[in-house]
Amino acid sequence: MREPVTGAVTVLLVDDHAVVREGYRRLLERRDIVVVGEAGDADAALSLFSDLDPQIVVMDITLPGRNGIDVLACMLALRPRTRVLMFSMHEEVIFAKRALRAGAFGYVTKASAPHELVDAVHTLTSGRKYVSAAMAQNLAIGEASAHEVSTDSLSTRELAVLRLLVQGFSVKDIAQSMGLNAKTVANHQSAIRQKLGADTSIQLLRKANQLGIV
Questions:
Q1: Rounded (5°) CA angle 187-189-194
Q2: Domain 156-210 in this protein, CATH class
Q3: What's the CA gap between 121 and 141, in Å, rounded?
Q4: In which residue ranges of the chain is CATH 3.40.50.2300 found?
Q5: Which residue has the higher pLDDT, 66 or 123?
Q6: What band does 177 get if pLDDT is binned at 50, 70 and 90?
Q7: In the CATH scheme, what is the code of domain 9-144?
Q8: What is the pTM of this model?
């Protein structure tokens, strides 16, 4: 952790991959943004958030244990004016919608150009919201065409599991990727099928396609 220079933008960086955090930190600090803390899971993020009171939190959705949207809710309960930027691999509209609805101040995908992350942090610092260009376009298209299947019954974790299932990952692979045990992932899979009314893998794929998850 670094002591911020007077007037510098302070950021708490939350991502479960240390190498990824290192890359983001270097990128941000080249633009006079000081990463005052780094966390790899929900508990560490909340502890540092409470101690450091950063101006901006840059956080991934997929974390071990509680996901980033749950952590966002906890942060807002502690400090309602908190500005959280979700920086996620999830490019599907439903993840952005859920994050923004939960109170995120911005959403940038990890597929975005590097300058978008820097631009987003500066935009949030000025009190304005930010959504990466590609996601903003997808959100606009999504508003124009309602999906046939509702995602309201699915938790954020179930959506993340569904995303990996339709990409062909096994329960074991998903468990390893998300920091869960295989039984938990299998339970999520059963709950997803029940909630979406999908008895077969083909039906599940069709439902996922209707949700915009491919």
A1: 95
A2: mainly alpha
A3: 25
A4: 9-144
A5: 123
A6: confident
A7: 3.40.50.2300
A8: 0.74
